[in-house]
Amino acid sequence: MKATPLSNCERRFLLRAIEERKRLDGRQCYDYRNIRISFGADYGCCIVELGKTRVLAQVSCELVPPKPNRPTEGVLFFNLELSPMAAPGFEPGRQSELLVQLNRLIERCLRNSKCIDTESLCVVAGEKVWQIRLDLHLLNHDGNIIDAASIAGIVALCHFRRPDVSVQGEEVTVYTPEERDPVPLSIHHMPICVSFAFFQQGTYLLVDPSEREERVMDGFLVIAMNKHHEICTIQSSGGIMLVKDQVLRCSKITAVKVAEITELIQKALENDQKVRKEGGKFGFAESIPNQKITAFKMESAAVDTNNVEEQAEEIITKAEPPSEVFAKPILHTPGTAQIGEGIENSWGDLEESEREEEAEEEGESEATAFECQKMETEDTSTMRETKKDEPIVVSDSEEEEVVILEPQELPKKTRPQTNLKQETTSKKAFNKRRKKKRAVH
């Protein structure tokens, strides 16, 4: 599924706002979006939020044979994935041009800058070394993926702990976290990427562009730098030519932003380490702010438990005693009961008019039953008379006897009987409707 393109009206609106030094989210030209770092329950797992752009980072390790040309150095592997969950324009299992460019930038930023001491990952030279794998997953795309991915990657590497190892002769023993404390990676510095977007052929410059601003930009510049003002990598893309003064201005802005982000990362790592040592709660669930409905928890409120008995006695003395106390439930009619104060329940009691109607129905039903019995006795008597008058013809043969029965007319008195039954049923239905209407009112 392709991403929905910007209309001409939106494009003109964005470009005009940039010319007036305004941005859609209210930031200034050189302002960064808010960065939020949250750690998982395991070491080496974190989520970095740059505005609405979210990246999940996970670091893992395993013992592997080293490369033949570097027998005393560990192996580093980096992988970034863009899933359709982040944006509908990303296709799963397909290496797009953007994905290849981002993976190369991350490798140049983290591997080529020598920020990790790979020689410290060697266990037995030429036989076994640690392979460190960094997996980055884009959870939501709102612009500037490379900055969020670089921050998430270096934070996860700094937070990761590998198992401790001992070597005795040719035997290598890997200890669990319960047996020995895990060992952190040896990291020399923290390279962080800062992105710049250029508009109107380099006339206007924005830091940390959003997703809509990236669609209308003319050029893109990424500078990776550490807090010591050392440039680790630099890459420019787009069809614009940058002047030396523009690159120098961007590098100065990068130095300021990198110092702020590095300080934020160190504070987040210290706070997480402090919580883990004190035995407090940590993980993604604890990082959810309490103000949201989905937090499933509330802040603890202080309750004063002093002089509780005295306050309870005062409340009891001031309260008015109940008028009547019902020790047992009162049964008005079968199936109903009343406990405590209240008006007597009249549910189940019939009104006088309903009682009269019921008495009338009972009288009518007895009369109809009596008439039905009369009709049945008369019918039986007529049948007996007709049977006496019927002729019986006997054939000459002694084996068979043939009896010829003449058809007889049905008694005429059966018709009013059916009419009476219909009248009684209609009356009963009418009375039921009447009761329902009264119950509703």
Break the fold down into its secondary structure elements and pairings.
Elements: H1 8-19, E1 35-39, E2 45-50, E3 53-64, E4 75-82, H2 97-110, E5 122-124, E6 128-140, H3 145-159, E7 161-162, E8 165-168, E9 171-174, E10 183-184, E11 192-199, E12 204-207, H4 211-216, E13 219-225, E14 231-238, H5 244-278, H6 308-318, H7 352-389, H8 414-440
Helix pairs in contact: 2-3, 7-8
Q: What is the overall silhouette?
A: elongated
Task: Give Rg in angstroms.
Answer: 46 Å
Please report which band the strand proportion falls in: under 5%, 5-15%, 15-25%, 25-35%, 35-45% or over 45%. Answer: 15-25%
Continuous helix count: 8
Total beta strand runs: 14
Main β-sheet, in a few words? 6 strands, mixed
Termini separation comes to 60 Å
Low-confidence sequence ranges: 386-398
Tell me roughly what share of residues is in helical segments.
25-40%
- Helix and strand pattern: HEEEEHEEHEEEEEEHEEHHHH
Mean of residue pLDDT values: 80
Structural class: alpha+beta
How does this structure look, described?
This protein has 441 residues and is an alpha+beta fold. Helices cover 36% and strands 20% of the residues. The protein is built from 8 helices and 14 strands. The strands form 4 sheets. Strands 1, 2, 3, 4, 5 and 6 form a 6-stranded mixed beta sheet that branches. It has a 4-stranded antiparallel beta sheet with strand order 12-11-13-14. A hairpin with a 5-residue loop joins strand 13 and strand 14. The radius of gyration is 46 Å and the shape is elongated. Residues 386-398 have low confidence and may be disordered.
